[in-house]
From TrEMBL:
InterPro entries with a match to the protein in the record: Kazal_dom, Kazal_dom_sf
CDD domains, A to Z: KAZAL_FS
Signal peptide: 1-22
Domain (Kazal-like): residue spans on this chain: 32-94
Organism: Hipposideros armiger
Pfam families, per the entry: Kazal_1 (PF00050)
Key words, A-Z: Protease inhibitor, Serine protease inhibitor, Signal
Designated name of the protein: Serine protease inhibitor Kazal-type 13
GO molecular function list: serine-type endopeptidase inhibitor activity
Gene designation per UniProt: SPINK13
Domain of life: Eukaryota
Length: 94
């Protein structure tokens, strides 16, 4: 009778670990992630000077340019227009 609770706990733990590790090693499609929230980086007034954080989280544009992070991407998109710079994926361009 005492073995039943131990087997149940073992089963629950092993199922949970299997689920966790399957998510860690699964390939994630970075092209299906949502686009960067560029509205939060748009200037408040005309003489606005953007101050993007010095964080490396690459963003790839359709023009093949890799930006340091979404802030730099959004600022360039705002300055040069959405018709010239479009989001492709998170991560470095290849």
């Amino acid at each position: 009778m005492a073995a039943f609770p131990h087997m149940t706990i073992f089963f629950l733990v092993s199922c949970t670990l299997t689920h966790v590790f399957s998510d860690i090693f699964k390939d994630h499609d970075l092209t299906k992630w949502p686009k960067p929230p560029c509205k939060m980086y748009h200037p408040v007034y005309p003489n606005y000077e953007a101050r993007c954080p010095n964080i490396t989280a690459p963003v790839c544009a359709e023009n093949g340019h890799t930006y340091q992070n979404e802030c730099f991407f959004c600022v360039d998109e705002w300055e040069f227009g959405r018709s010239h710079i479009k989001f492709f994926k998170y991560g470095k361009c290849e």
